[in-house]
Amino acid sequence: MIQLCLKESCTGCGACMQSCNHGAITMRYDSEGFLLPIIDKAKCVDCGLCQKHCPELNPIERLDYEKQKYYALIYDQDRKISSSGGAFSVFAKWIISQGGIVYGATINEKFEVRHIGVESTGELNKLRGSKYVQSIIGDTYKDIRNHLRSNRKVLFVGTGCQVGGLYSFLNGKRYEGLLYTLDLVCHGTPSYGAFKSYLSKLEKNISPNGEVGAIRDFRFRKLDSWSIVSSVKFTKSDWRMLNLSENAFMDAFFKGITFRECCFNCQYCNTKRIGTFTIADFWDIGRHGLPFKRNVSSGVSLVIDNTGLMPSIIDELRGMVYIEERPKEEAICEQVNLKNPMKRLAVRDSAVLDMIDPNFSLKEYAKKYQLPYKATMKWRIQKIVKDVIYAFGLYSVYKTIIYKFGK
Predict the structure, then answer these.
(1) Whole-model pTM?
(2) pLDDT in tens, 14-50
(3) CA 12 – CA 337 distance, rounded (Å)
């Protein structure tokens, strides 16, 4: 009988499901809102393809890291509509200019985070911005394989486990010159179930008249800065930044208490990356020995070239962006998840279920898990200062001062 990897190891990448030629595997939500593969024994023929293509049972062979280089990248054109320095947009436009297709995560009208493919620069906005929820891969790997077999270039952007799932589905073949992958430096992935419940609690607590379904849009981060404060837009209101317990989902994320179980043992949380390139925020660039003279106020992207490809394309990219090589030590200094996975805290199990529980309020949640929930004098002063900075367009000046004189 076929045995897939243990629930504690499963990343939910869906490579097993897409490898099954008999439709015997479906992805279903468990009690914590995470997708897991379920085998229909009546349809299973014990061929073993699902096991063969599982990147947890059969990890993909890693790369030659002697060629690995670290870069800072700034794409000024898109910095105001991206949550970092715009690295994704650069690579995406580069692929599309060659007639390729780009696969990345978007949020649909149900607030599901799903992977989709886009073929024009006008559609890239669907994929921009950070999404702190595990995306649904669906049949993306199958679609990519079809494009590659027809010699069409593809860019796939996802977490390390999703990129690993793609290569595993492709039998480890990298399709050099056709397939390009961007793996994200990932803290961990909360579930869609937890996020959906969180939105319902927001509607109940702060939407006009407590209307169900009143949320029309949601942003995990402020796009014109490195802020990690979320914003929500209701049917009859402008964007509203979330404060204290209203921002409990993101606060829980950065505390690492709502992640998928496998995230605490992630094989990709190190510098031995899986993708063609790795992208992330370049935290505190210029603060660790080597000055950085560019404006950092709207974010800078860290790009790790894992395959030695950058020298052959850097002249093309420089036509769009500013890019310079930086020391590895600086690049990984502030990147915890280029060193180790997040530590599993004892409260993890209850933290996921309490977020899902419709009767557990956000204020109760924030208080129980020691997240910000009370408007202290210090918090009020900080909020007033930040509101003034943003209202008068002084964020760039503020960020420059912070970088020059320290945190």
Answers:
(1) 0.92
(2) 999 999 999 999 999 999 999 999 999 999 999 999 9
(3) 20
